[in-house]
């Protein structure tokens, strides 16, 4: 607990936490606005192609739509949690405090675990803020649309709680990236490219290969990306042409475990100076 408190002291005494919190709230607002537009067309579908009718109908279900709206802002919120997890590690090397940290606590695994716990707790705080804003906004929007609000539905509650799990797991993945790539710029740029550009690029490539080779299983590979997996997890419902939502949780757990374990093993044996 002392180690975790020290990690929060490092976060709290810099500008990082409030800049990330402010960025999360601003981008949540943009995401919620986009989701409102999409939800409006889901509630009032016109000229929908037959191949999309089943998906639109499933998303128009009160529980599915409420869950979709109540978890708004996840995409950018997870990005900030990822970056914070990275910075909790790379800041030590960037500001040359790693030597002092590991001299004070020679058990390096304990330090990494404390950083992971701090990133996960920060993820919980961002989840709490975005969830409160999303729930309030969802109630106002659905009332304006004269649509049913299903906040008490078990699948909606499940989606909100799974969203919390996603925020915590992305904190773990961020710490994993940080211990794998010590360079602050290198780790941050790599993570952002993989999160923002890589997701879109891989999704396009997978779609093209699937259409070219006429193999549906290739399309499923896109769900191995953590950003796609978190969206699948938070849906909390099984939609047509998608894997079960819990598959997204398994993918995120795998990414967190692989990056965290490998990074910790490297840190345990790395020369720190």
Short description:
The chain is mostly helical. It has 12 helices and no strands.
Please provide a written account of the structure.
- With 273 residues, the chain is mostly helical.
- The chain has one domain.
- Helix 8 packs across helix 9 and helix 11 crosses helix 12.
User: Which runs of at least 5 residues are low in confidence (pLDDT < 50)?
Assistant: none
Give the number of DSSP strands: 0
Roughly what fraction of the amino acids lie in strands?
A: under 5%
The tally of helices reads 12
N to C succession of SSEs: HHHHHHHHHHHH
Q: Quaternary state, please? A: single chain
Helix content: over 70%
Q: What's the average pLDDT?
A: 82
Shape: globular
Instruction: State the secondary-structure class.
Output: mainly alpha
Count of domain modules: 1
Our measurement of the CA-to-CA distance between the termini, rounded to an integer number of angstroms, reads 26 Å
The rounded Rg comes to 20 Å
Biggest sheet statistics:
none
Topology, pairings included?
Blueprint: H1 2-12, H2 16-43, H3 50-59, H4 62-70, H5 74-94, H6 98-104, H7 108-144, H8 154-180, H9 184-213, H10 216-219, H11 226-235, H12 245-269
Task: Name the descriptors.
single chain, 273 residues, mainly alpha, 12 helices, 0% strand, globular
């Amino acid at each position: 607990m002392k180690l975790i408190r020290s990690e929060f002291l490092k976060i709290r005494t810099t500008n990082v936490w409030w800049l990330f919190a402010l960025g999360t709230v601003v981008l949540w607002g943009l995401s919620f606005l986009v989701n409102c537009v999409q939800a409006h067309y889901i509630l009032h579908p016109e000229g929908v192609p037959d191949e999309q009718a089943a998906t639109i109908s499933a998303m128009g279900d009160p529980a599915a739509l409420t869950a979709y709206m109540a978890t708004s802002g996840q995409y950018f919120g997870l990005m900030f949690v990822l970056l914070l997890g990275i910075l909790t590690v790379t800041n030590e090397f960037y500001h040359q405090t790693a030597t002092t940290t590991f001299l004070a606590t020679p058990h390096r695994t304990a330090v990494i675990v404390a950083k992971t716990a701090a990133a996960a707790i920060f993820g919980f705080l961002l989840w709490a803020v975005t969830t409160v804003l999303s729930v309030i906004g969802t109630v106002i929007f659905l009332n304006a649309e004269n649509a049913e609000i299903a906040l008490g539905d078990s699948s909606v509650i499940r989606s909100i709680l799974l969203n919390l799990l996603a925020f915590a797991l992305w904190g773990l993945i961020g710490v994993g990236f940080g211990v794998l790539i010590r360079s602050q710029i290198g780790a941050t740029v790599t993570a952002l490219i993989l999160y923002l550009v890589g997701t879109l690029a891989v999704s396009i490539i997978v779609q093209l290969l699937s259409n070219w080779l006429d193999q549906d299983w290739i399309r499923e590979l896109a769900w191995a990306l953590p950003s796609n997996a978190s969206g699948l997890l938070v849906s909390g419902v099984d939609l047509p042409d998608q894997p079960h939502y819990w598959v997204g949780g398994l993918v995120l757990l795998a990414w967190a475990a692989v990056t965290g374990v490998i990074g910790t093993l490297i840190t345990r044996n790395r020369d720190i100076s």
